């Protein structure tokens, strides 16, 4: 008990969000590893194989997110994060040990690794939102995104530093080194407490009180404990009947559609096409070898980290929906303008598309990238939070898997500008979805969101517009 009391809130928030480092590293590491893997296994003309190797992690993450969401409601957020760290370390080492030409082995290993990636994407936002005070929840949940992009930047730098190794060793070392942050996460989470909301839901009020004691001011502990207790008491009456079908009951359907929709749009907007394939994008645009373009991922990584820091500064100063609207609009234009200019200009600069992609990354980094997981972490009622977060994470990874798999196939059959124009249209559709379907959650306690943002079945049947007005900004 005494050791647990000595844990500082900064330590809790840091390692609570450290899971982002893991899948941030794995999102980024294939960017640099892929050119060497292509050369080593002669995959330059195998767009489908490249797509599967790249997107295997996202395929596994689809199932990892859903399973972790359900299991975390039974076992707790903390225990599931520990299990995820173990899977991540083993999966990373297996990827580095793939036999020569063993595409099936590598794909299967990356799918296994994806189970941990998907679990982390579901668990970290839920854990951080349940420990964060309402007025800081956006900023603290945004730490998850800072960790993700920091992991990506680290992987880009590692890729660049290892680029002079022989091809057969370079990509193996790059992939296997992901085990290092997994071990760090496991050791750090061993000292973390469980979420107080989960503890209350399990009837462990004394433990919840102790956890609240060192993440809240003394005068706030009793009030928040009472709020959590009341919510848990009300929802425990229906928790035994909760299933996947419960997520789409009239009582919860509106919030589930909002959270899952935002998570899906974030990936179908095409961000991972840039993060996975930027060296190949530069190669297509300029004709230079992809393995010589590894500085561009570092540039993108720096933009992502700076954007995440900007978000931490503005997270609780602007409405969630406002930031998503501005970001999505600029992102859409950044994808659409290259196609338009390419059709109007003769011999445009081939680097034009890379410049516009950098603008996309800049706005994505402090809007849709962090806010998606802030909203997923705070919009779902406690009784369905773990399961709904898992579904949202799975839809997010379905989008990521689809983009990762199809992007090399699409660019092999049509100009890059047209592929990105399609993503641009999806960005604009995402803005429309936010303006019409997503409630504002900034500065509201999780209990207040649950109490005042769930429309009744009657509202669904005939008064949807009033519901939108009641829960919007």
From TrEMBL:
GO cellular component: plasma membrane
Compartment(s) of residence: Cell membrane
PROSITE patterns tied to this protein: MFS (PS50850), SUGAR_TRANSPORT_1 (PS00216), SUGAR_TRANSPORT_2 (PS00217)
Gene Ontology molecular function, alphabetical: carbohydrate:proton symporter activity
Keyword tags: Cell membrane, Membrane, Transmembrane, Transmembrane helix, Transport
Transmembrane portions of the chain: 12-37, 49-68, 80-99, 105-128, 140-158, 170-190, 254-278, 298-315, 322-341, 353-376, 388-412, 418-434
InterPro entries assigned to the protein according to its UniProt record, in alphabetical order: MFS_dom, MFS_sugar_transport-like, MFS_Sugar_Transporters, MFS_trans_sf, Sugar/inositol_transpt, Sugar_transporter_CS, XylE-like
Segments forming domain Major facilitator superfamily (MFS) profile: 12-442
Source organism superkingdom: Bacteria
NCBIfam families on file: SP
Family that this chain belongs to: Belongs to the major facilitator superfamily. Sugar transporter (TC 2.A.1.1) family.
Name under which the protein is recorded: MFS transporter
């Amino acid at each position: 008990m005494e050791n647990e009391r000595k844990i500082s809130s900064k330590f809790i928030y840091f390692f609570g969000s450290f899971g982002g480092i893991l899948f941030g590293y794995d999102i980024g590491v294939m960017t640099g590893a892929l050119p060497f893997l292509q050369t080593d296994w002669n995959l330059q003309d195998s767009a489908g194989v490249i797509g599967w190797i790249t997107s295997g992690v996202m395929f596994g993450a689809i199932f990892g997110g859903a399973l972790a969401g359900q299991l975390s409601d039974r076992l707790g957020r903390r225990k599931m994060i520990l299990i995820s760290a173990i899977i991540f370390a083993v999966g990373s080492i297996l990827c580095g040990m793939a036999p020569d030409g063993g595409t099936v082995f590598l794909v299967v290993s990356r799918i296994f690794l994806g189970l941990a990636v998907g679990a982390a994407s579901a668990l970290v936002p839920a854990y951080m939102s349940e420990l964060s005070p309402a007025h800081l929840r956006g900023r603290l949940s945004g730490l998850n995104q800072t960790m993700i992009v920091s992991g990506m930047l680290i992987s880009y730098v590692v890729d660049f530093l290892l680029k002079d190794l022989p091809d057969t060793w370079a990509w193996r070392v790059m992939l296997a080194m992901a085990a290092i942050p997994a071990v760090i996460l496991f050791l750090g989470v061993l000292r973390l407490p469980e979420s107080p909301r989960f503890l209350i839901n399990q009837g462990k009020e004394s433990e919840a009180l102790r956890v609240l004691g060192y993440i809240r001011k003394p005068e706030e502990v009793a009030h928040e404990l009472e709020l959590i207790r009341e919510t848990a008491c009300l929802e425990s009456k229906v928790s035994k009947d909760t299933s996947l079908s419960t997520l789409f009951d009239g009582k919860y359907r509106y919030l589930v559609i909002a959270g899952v929709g935002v998570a899906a749009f974030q990936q179908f907007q095409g961000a991972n096409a840039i993060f996975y394939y930027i060296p190949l994008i530069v190669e297509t645009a300029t004709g230079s070898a992809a393995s010589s373009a590894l500085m561009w991922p570092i540039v993108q990584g720096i933009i992502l980290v700076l954007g995440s820091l900007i978000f931490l500064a503005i997270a609780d100063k602007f409405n969630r929906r406002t930031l998503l609207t501005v970001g999505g609009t600029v992102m859409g234009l950044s994808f659409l303008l290259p196609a338009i200019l390419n059709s109007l200009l003769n011999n445009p600069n081939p680097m034009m598309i890379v410049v516009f992609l950098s603008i996309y990354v800049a706005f994505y980094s402090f809007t849709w990238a962090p806010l998606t997981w802030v909203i997923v972490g705070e919009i779902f009622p406690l009784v369905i939070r773990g399961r709904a977060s898992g579904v949202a994470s799975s839809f997010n990874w379905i989008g990521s898997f689809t983009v990762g798999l199809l992007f090399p196939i699409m660019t092999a059959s049509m100009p890059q500008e047209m592929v990105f124009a399609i993503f641009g249209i999806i960005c604009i559709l995402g803005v429309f979805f936010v303006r019409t379907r997503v409630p504002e959650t900034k500065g509201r306690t999780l209990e207040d969101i649950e109490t005042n943002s769930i429309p009744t079945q009657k509202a669904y049947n005939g008064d949807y517009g009033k519901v939108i007005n009641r829960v919007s900004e």
